[in-house]
Amino acid sequence: MIVKVNNLVKRYKELIALEHFNMEVEEGEILGLLGPNGCGKTTAINCILSLLNFDKGEIEIFGKKMTPNSYDIKKQIGVVPQEVSVFENLTVRENIDYFCGLYVEDKVTRKQYVEEAIEFVGLKDYVKFYPNKLSGGLKRRLNIACGIAHKPKLIFLDEPTVAVDAQSRNFILDGIKRLNQEGSTIIYTTHYLEEAEMICKRIIIMDNGKNLVSGTNEELKAMITTTEKIVVGFSVIKDETVQKLRKIPHVIDIEKREDDYIIKFENGLNNLSNLLEFIKENNLTYTKLYSQLPTLNDVFLELTGKELRD
């Protein structure tokens, strides 16, 4: 077990930021820590790293108790914070060299690591640039390079793709997968569900400082009632016909979004066929019709009654 968090509690006076939070991370996995902004993800990470004091709980990393003075453990950890944290008066190469030098004393090894980090994040053409001359996406890449240049065994990535363009986001996600393939264990926090589904082997969903559920994508989706959603846009449909729709076998809910109806089904093998038959029998005309499998947002919605990005 690389990380073990047991019964973690963190309070700010009357506010409970973490309430008996638990987490285990196996060696070699990418663990996704999901939840809306303000749910406690960053607080949990800062407590795990001993950057914040906490009121109750136990934290072990690499099988050892984590404390503010656990420098032998911290040397093996890389942190990429949510806010870009680089020196504006240092160039790209100088920034990466500085942060790598906090962990790697040997100059020859450090030089090699810095060059490898520059290549890894695709900043070879920008090594002499200062951060204020970089785009938001390139700054994010620099932030990542500073956090991983010393080749840590465990990497914390806290919302690394916030406010970046699609190209940079894909580059960053591909890089995270490569880090994992090269042997790093990764804890990845995000509120972008599609990212978690793309790269995470296991996921913890948290809200209000608590971890609600954990498991693989498939395990989480198997926990909820909804097994299929069919989106259909009707040219014209009466309210009484919508009520009839609810009586189709296995329908558990119908949600209207603008001109579309999202029909949610529980277990059933012929949901689409039953719906098409209903449309034919009632002489309805549709402008669109397609089936969707449940998403992580459906899991969160059923567990909490709200969407992840609310």
Automatic annotation (TrEMBL):
- Keywords in alphabetical order, please: ATP-binding, Nucleotide-binding, Transport
Organism domain of life: Bacteria
Question: Which SMART domains does its entry note?
Answer: AAA (SM00382)
Kindly name one Pfam family recorded for this protein.
ABC_tran
- InterPro entries with a match to the protein in the record: AAA+_ATPase (IPR003593), ABC_transporter-like_ATP-bd (IPR003439), DrrA1/2-like_C (IPR025302), P-loop_NTPase (IPR027417)
The Gene Ontology terms for molecular function here are: ATP binding
Name by which UniProt lists this protein: ABC transporter ATP-binding protein
